[in-house]
Amino acid sequence: MSHELLAVRSGTTRAIIDGRAPALYVMTMANGVSAKVGALEAAGNAGTRLSDVQRDHRRREPEGSFPLSLVVVLEIVDLPIAGDHDVDSEERWAELEHLESALRLVLARRHGRLARWTDWIHLDTPMSTDQWVTSVREAWEEVCSLGRTARFGG
Fold first, then answer.
1. Which of 8, 56, 120, 153 has the most CB atoms around it within 10 Å of its CB?
2. Could you tell me the strand order of the sheet in which 4-9 lies?
3. Which pLDDT score is estimated for 44?
4. Residue-wise pLDDT tens digits, 47-71
5. What is the sign of the dihedral through the CA atoms of 115, 117, 119 and 120?
6. What is the spatial distance between Cα 58 and Cα 77, in angstroms, rounded to a whole number?
7. Exposure b/e, 83-120, CB count within 10 A at least 16 = b
8. DSSP the chain
9. What is the pTM of this model?
10. Smallest Cα–Cα separation from 74: which of 149, 22, 131?
């Protein structure tokens, strides 16, 4: 399963990702029963994060859950964090964490329920990458209505 790279900037979506802006991601288990919704300081760190999560969860999950797949990386290019060490960085990271939680809650409500493990949701039915991309786009619209941030466009 390949992953979709999306970038959001002031009302537009583009498939080109520069990897330096913060991001939200969705990764799924091979058996399709659970998904992790998380945040990254930089979108370019998604592959490393996938490896780290997979390594950590191999101790808890049955082998049929692996490999994990990164299905969506949502780069938020107008919320700079990566490499910044100014006084506003912590506030922007907190905003990203709020967006992460909101996205997870919307996806859980639409496709299943929250899991006991932090950042995970349990799915009612497995979803393809295309279904995830569509769902994350729709969920992002709802998240954007909750606060000030970029919006998906055309």
1. 8
2. 12-14, 4-9, 69-76, 23-28, 34-40, 120-123, 112-114
3. 85
4. 899 999 999 888 877 777 889 889 8
5. negative
6. 32
7. eeeeeeeeebbebbeebbebbbbbbbeebbeebeeebb
8. ---EEEEEETTEEES---S-S-EEEEEE-TTSSEEEEEEESSGGGHHHHHHHHHHHHTTTS-GGG-S-EEEEEEEETTS--TT--STTHHHHHHHHHHHHHHHHHHHHHHHEEE-SSTTEEEESS---HHHHHHHHHHHHHHHHHHSS------
9. 0.82
10. 22
Identify residue 76 by its one-letter amino acid code. I
For the chain, the structural domain boundaries read 4-146
Question: What tokens appear for 23 in the block?
Answer: 């991001």
